Amino acid sequence: MSLDQRVFAWRGHYEHPHANSGSLAGLRLGVKDLFHIAGLPTAAGNPDWLASHPLPEHTSPVVAQLLNAGAELIGKTQTDELAYSLNGLNIHYGAPLNPVCPERLPGGSSSGSAVAVAAGDIDIGLGTDTGGSIRVPASYNGLFGIRTSHGLISAEHMVPLAPPFDTVGWLTRDAQTLAQVGEVLLPADLATSFPHKSLRAALLLPLQQGVLWSPEHQAWLKQQPLLPSVKPILLNGDWLSRASQCFRTLQGRAIWQTHGDWITEHQPTFAPDIHARFQWCATLTVADQTAAETERASLQADIDGWFSDVDLILLPTTPGPSPLLGADSQWMDMYRSQLMGLTAAAGLAGLPQVHLPVLRDEQGAPYGVSLLGRRGDDKALLQLAIDLCGDRL
């Protein structure tokens, strides 16, 4: 398997009448291989999906908007199988190489989009985020990324994972480009700034085997004049575990309702870890879903409370830099649960979240900080990303 095939499901020149004219003219676009483009196959990271589905006749409205704004489509990018992983490893097409730290995971499921942006092959990596699939690879590859408010951008003509949580997102090397794409895709009437001249922020301090907000995070925060003071909110391990399990249950139930019939009929070949998760999804019951919905209401009330008297929330995007390739599977299971404790809040409440690639460890591996906003604060978060970071990587 060539390195190019690990990143791109298709690569070539796509003719479009609006090429090189519009606000995104001159910017190269890669589209996660979940979005349909008329005349190009959609594999969703799995050969059995490709073989059992016809060639798309329609193009995703999201892709059409980007092309109409002048972006140049140069490829469809690889994804974890049906987008059901956060690792970025695909047993069928190979693992995209993390350009920043090749010894570490690239992150998924928008792995191809993230790696292509980080490597400089494209300028805009279009992807999706259900449980962290924009935020996690953005962190692992040192990129800016946004998971948009749930339902704000069309998911039509796109392979779903779990529709109640699926969102559209994108990755770039700089904050300005991230916001440019937002101007094309997000509703025009969204506010572009927060209502208060002096920003009011809260800081989530997740307690998982120690506080995940590190001294390095705090040093970055102290250098931000736009964030002179923040209200600390301590999240204990029990809350994070509840949020992770609640999200996994509701997502898993939605996944099986979406893909169970196809999996049962076609018996596709999945990676062992992904196969095990689909098998688990099949065991979830209506009673499990009902209990999880009750838990979700309680957790969402807590999340709503975080925003009392504040404009936005700061939090670590991931527990730290990307895990090393070949990490022990038992450790990875623990890490995935820990990671989803961080990513679950935005998913459960349908909120927008922007990753800022502002930190590196001693070996140069990237990680960073997230800005979490209320539903519809997408453009305000994008402008704040520019204000905090300028155009730097």
Q: In words, what does this structure look like?
A:
The chain has 393 residues and is α/β, with parallel strands linked by helices. The protein is 38% helix and 16% strand. It has a single domain (3-389), classed as Alpha-Beta Complex (Amidase signature (AS) enzymes), CATH 3.90.1300. It has 12 helices and 11 strands. It has an 11-stranded mixed beta sheet with strand order 1-3-2-4-6-5-10-11-9-7-8, with helices on both faces. The longest helix is centred in the middle third of the chain and has 30 residues, at 237-266. The two termini are 30 Å apart. Residues 18-187, 267-382 form the Amidase domain. This is Amidase. InterPro entries: Amidase_CS (IPR020556), Amidase_dom (IPR023631), AS_sf (IPR036928).
- SS-derived structural category: alpha/beta
Instruction: Choose one word for the global shape.
Output: globular
Beta content comes to: 15-25%
Give the domain tally: 1
The top-level CATH class is Alpha Beta
Distance between the amino and carboxyl termini: 30 Å
Unreliable parts: none
CATH topology: Amidase signature (AS) enzymes
C-alpha-based Rg, rounded: 19 Å
Number of helices: 12
Mean residue pLDDT: 95
The percent range for helix content is: 25-40%
Order of helices and strands: HEEHHEHEHEEHEHEHHHEHEEH
Instruction: Name the CATH superfamily assignment.
Output: Amidase signature (AS) domain
Q: Largest sheet, order of strands side by side?
A: 1-3-2-4-6-5-10-11-9-7-8
Largest sheet: 11 strands, mixed
The CATH architecture classification is: Alpha-Beta Complex
Strand tally: 11
